[in-house]
Structures are given as structure tokens and as C-alpha cells.
Amino acid sequence: RQKNANSSKYFEKKRTKRHTQLWHCVFHIITHVRSIKQSIMSDTSSIDAVMVEKEDAVVEEPKEPELIDEEEEEANTNKPEDAAQEVEARPEKLQQAAAAPVQIVSIGNEEDAYAFTFHKDALNEILNKVPEKEHVAVVSVVGAFRTGKSFLLSWFLKYLHSDANGDAAKDWYTKFDKLGGGPGSNPDDTDAETHGFDWRGGSERNTTGIWMWSEPFSRTRADGSKISVLLVDTQGMFDHETTMALTAAIFGLSTLLSSHQIYNVDKRIQEDNLQQLALFSEYGRMALEQEKRESSADDSDENISAAVAKAPFQSIEFLVRDWQNFEDDEDEELMEKEMSEYLETVLKERDAKDLQETRDHISSSFEKISCFMMTHPGFAVTKKKYEGDVSKIEPTFLVLLDKFCRKVFGENLQPKTIHGRELTASELAAFMEAYALLFKNGAAFPEASTMLEATASANNTVAVNATISTYVEEMDGFAGPDAVTFRKDEDFRAFHDSVMNKSMRAFDDIATFGSANSIRKARMKVITDITQRLAMYEKLNESRNPLAGLETFLIPSGVAVLSYILRTIADATCSSWSQTCRASSDALSHILAAAFIFLFIVYLTKAKQIHDKLKQLHGAVTAMFAGDSSSEKAPTRAESKIKND
């Protein structure tokens, strides 16, 4: 038996050691393969040297099995598990650490090559990183495919990382050697500053759908307030694979979401660029006209007419790439002057009707139109094998790039606004979802009336939520679940009316877009909700009334007192020989006894409630007889609010 036991122990330790050696082999093989992969990405010529280096690290051949003590066995058993856990944990760590572009709209699926799919969860994951009440600005780049949109956005990322605290050096673009996002970028790199929007040289399209950078950037506005900046990259237009309707949908959705949209054009602003922009913004102008018709048809609501006072979109900036006509590319002031003069020349009035209508459409659709021009970055950048080497970029391009970044992300950066209201991240998500639903099929550009309804619906939803939130916040402090003071009916009604008026004014300030009928429905929804909540607050306030429920005790007590008085009178006035008097006295005695028994039973079942009611009654009586002293005290917060309102 001892021999068999020793043999079993020997083979058990033999198997354990073989498992240990196997785990070591697996770990070294994984390490070896990853090292070779990284070496291939960085320098393919060093593969042989890496393999020779790694051959020295290969595990030794297993030796003959031998008996080892329990401590060594336990140590060898734990090592491969730790190594395996480390290998398994690395990809997850890298995935969490690295910021990257996230696709929020994709094009095509297995059933429909032109399907328009909105990824709501991906967008919400980004917007959840924005502080709750902080406004957001959305900077997007649109334009024809293969014109350097993603390349420009990667430069934006470099600038925003360099200017994280608003102190970017004048030569910030010389502080690094390589631009992220290019062909040579390492996807396993955890440094966020080396990442960028994916860009490639060549003639084939690279970006499809709409992409947003996964991390918002916090900036400081001119008034000192904080604003979160979101960067958006869009699929290039006219790539021979995307329909015109789908191109219009991508451009249109990007325009609706952007607070500052950059229209990337090549070499000059041509007439077809203006016509395309007018086409994609045409539904905004139609929405304004539709709003005017509906508001004039119903004169009962005067607040709706304010919705048509401003253009539907905020800022559009033409970015002319590879501009070759500067008089002196070393005189920055002269170049800025030439940019302004060029835009005035492009947008000036024309005698031809169709040309002038195009310009009128653009002017009526955007609040601000500007222009910036940049020189060619250098022919080395246009080559397909270019991997982002900054030293190969022309210095003039970098100087203009610096001025453009400071212009776009300066103190005058405006948040996304819709109908004059600056949006937070949650409100932007609501509008984004409403607009994306219009493009879900990707087959036809939505009609302006449909766009108007979607905008009005999203805006009314924001108005309803803000109004109810205002009402609940005020009423909770006055008569909510945490309140302890009973409010008289007149005080309760006065406070409710004050809060109601304040809430409805907030609703009217927000719900200024859409048809009178849609706004009326939203208003009725608010009133219905507030009415239901009012009933709840009334019940809560009534539960704190010290006199509530006293009828349970007062009625039996009154019956008992009345019975006692009548019996006393009957005993004093009736003759002793009268049977009627004796019967009446006995009946009144029974009623008195029944009343006392009922009160005793009620007291036993509701002793705690009775005790609380007595305390409330005592407090109410004390408050009544302390009028002079209480009048000298400072008014409560709720009473002050009633007085102020």
C-alpha cells in the first residue's frame, strides 16, 4: 500500500509539472508571436533579428520527472495561472485605455446595401462622458471623398490634446514627429494622443457612414463657462458607390447635428459646391415656410411666430484646400483679407435667377457663413505610402493649420443650439434620435414637413420634461414626501398656482417650434401630468393634517356625552315607579357603555396613530397661541417664495 501511495504521488506531481511546463510554453509562444507582430508593423527588416533574439528565450526541454516538495509544486502551479491571467487581461486593458473614432451611423447591411443604421448605444456611450448640465458643441467636416477630411480631423485632435488647458504653444505642431490615424498607426498603442481618425492615401474611399470621436474635449468659452466639444467625421460625397439620396441623408444629418460645420472643397468654391449645399439645406428653408403658414393659420398662439426668426442651422465654413493664389503666403494679415474678399466674391448677388436663388437658399439656411483657405501640404503627403511624417509637410500649410485650429476652437466657439436653446448632451441625444429615424431606410431624402415634425416632436419632448422637472422640484420642497409641515388649503393652492405659472412660462420659452396643434398637445400633456401630481401632493399634505381622522373619535365621544346627559336628565325628572323612564335610562346607559367600548377598541388598534395625532394637535394649538412670537420670526423658504411670486 505504501508503494502504491508513493507511486500515485509521483505520477500526480509528474502531471502537475508537465502542465506547468505546458503553460510556460504557451505563454512564451504568445509573447513570441506578439513581438514578431509588433516588429513587422514597425520595421519589417528586423524580423530575422527578432526571431534570433526570441530563440534564446524558448523554454528548455523537459527534464526527467523527479519528486519535488509541496512548496515548489504549489509555486510552479500558480505561475502559469498568473501568466495566463496577465495575457488574457492585456487586450481588455488596451481596449479601455485607447480613445478612438466610434461609428454612430453605418451604411448598408446584409439585406440592403444602402440601409441607413443609427447606433444609439454608441452615441449615448460618448455623450454620457459629458458633464450633466454642460453644453456641447459639435464640429463636423463634410465634403467630397478623398479630399482630406479625416486627415484634417486628426490634426484637430493633435491641437486639442496640445491645448488641453488653453495654453497651446504657437509651434505646437512641431512637438511630435508623426500624425495619428495613418497607415503606420499602431492599434495596440494606449497613448490617446497618437491616435486619430482613420485616413489613407490613394483614390479609394476610406470613411463610410458617420463617425464621432469617443472622448469629448472640454473648452472654456469667452464668458468663462465650460463647453464639451465633439468631433464628427462623415463619409465623402460622390464616391461612385453611394446614391445621391444617401449622400444627401449623410450630409443633411451632419448639418442638423453640427454647431460648426466645415465644408471641405478642393482648390476653389465652385458653383456645384454651392448647389449641393443649397440642395442639402433646402428642407431647412421649407421648414421655415411651413412654420409660417401654420402659425398664420392659427392666430391663437402668439409664441409660435418666434420660431421662424432665425435660420435653422448655425455655422458653415468653406475650407478651400490646396489654394494656390495667395499674393504673399508669408503675410498672414494679407492672406486673411484675401479669404474674406474671396468669400464676398463667391456669394455676391448674381443677375441670373438660378444662381441668385442658390445663394439665397444658403444665406437663409445658415446663421453664419465664413471661409478659410489652406495651401497644399506637399506632394509627399499625397502619396499612398505616406504614414504621417510631420517633417514632410510644407511649413506654410502648418502655419495656416495653426490659425485655422485656433479660429475653430477659440473662445468664440458656440454650443449646439436649436431654436435659440443651447443643448446639453442628453438633449442632443434626443434630437439625434429623432432625426436619425427619418433616414433609417436611406432610400429617399425626407420631406421638409417630415423634418419639421421630427424637430417639433423632439423640441416638445424637451419642453415637457423641463416643465415637469421644474414643477416637481418646487413642490417636493413645499409639500413632498420629505416635508413635515401641514399647509393650509389657501397657502397650498397659492404656492401651487405660483409654481404652475412659473413652469408653464418655462414651457412657453422652449416650445416655440412646430405647429400650433403639436404644441397644444404637448401643453395638455404637461397640464395632465401636473394635475395628477397635484392630487398626490394634496394627499401627502392632508396626511400631515393634525385634525384629520378625528371624526373616528369625536362621533362616538359625542354620542357617549349625549347619552350621559340624557340619562342624567331622565333619572332626575322621572318618577321611580315609571317603567318608561327606567327603560329609557337603561337604554341610554347601554349606549354610553357601547360608546366607551368602541373608543377603547379603537384606541387599542390605533394607539400609535392617536399618539401622533395628539402631538400634531398639541403643535397646532401651540402655533395658534404663539402668533405674536411667530410673526417676529423669519419667514420659511416656502412662504418667502409665495411672497416673491
Q: How would you describe this protein?
A:
By secondary structure, this protein is α/β, with parallel strands linked by helices. It is 56% helix and 10% strand. It is built from 20 helices and 11 strands. It has helices at residues 2-42, 47-55, 70-97, 120-127, 149-162, 244-257, 271-280, 282-297, 332-347, 353-365, 395-408, 425-438, 448-479, 489-510, 516-543, 551-573, 579-605, 607-624, 627-631, 637-644; strands at 101-107, 116-118, 135-143, 210-213, 217-220, 226-234, 260-266, 313-321, 366-373, 417-418, 421-422. The strands form 2 sheets. Strands 1, 2, 3, 4, 5, 6, 7, 8 and 9 form a 9-stranded mixed β-sheet that branches. A two-stranded antiparallel sheet has the order 10-11. A hairpin with a 2-residue loop joins strand 10 (417-418) and strand 11 (421-422). Residues 44-97, 284-288, 299-309, 442-449 and 627-639 have low confidence and may be disordered.
Give a summary of the structure in a few sentences:
By secondary structure, the protein is an alpha/beta fold.
Strand fraction equals 5-15%
Sheet with most strands: 9 strands, mixed
Distance between the termini: 96 Å
Give the helix proportion (percent range). 55-70%
Give the total of beta strands: 11
Low-confidence stretches: 44-97, 284-288, 299-309, 442-449, 627-639
Set out the fold topology.
Layout: H1 2-42, H2 47-55, H3 70-97, E1 101-107, E2 116-118, H4 120-127, E3 135-143, H5 149-162, E4 210-213, E5 217-220, E6 226-234, H6 244-257, E7 260-266, H7 271-280, H8 282-297, E8 313-321, H9 332-347, H10 353-365, E9 366-373, H11 395-408, E10 417-418, E11 421-422, H12 425-438, H13 448-479, H14 489-510, H15 516-543, H16 551-573, H17 579-605, H18 607-624, H19 627-631, H20 637-644
Parallel strand pairs: 3-6, 3-7, 7-8, 8-9
Antiparallel strand pairs: 1-2, 1-4, 4-6, 5-6, 10-11
Helix pairs in contact: 1-2, 1-3, 4-12, 7-10, 8-13, 12-13, 13-14, 13-15, 14-15, 14-20, 16-17
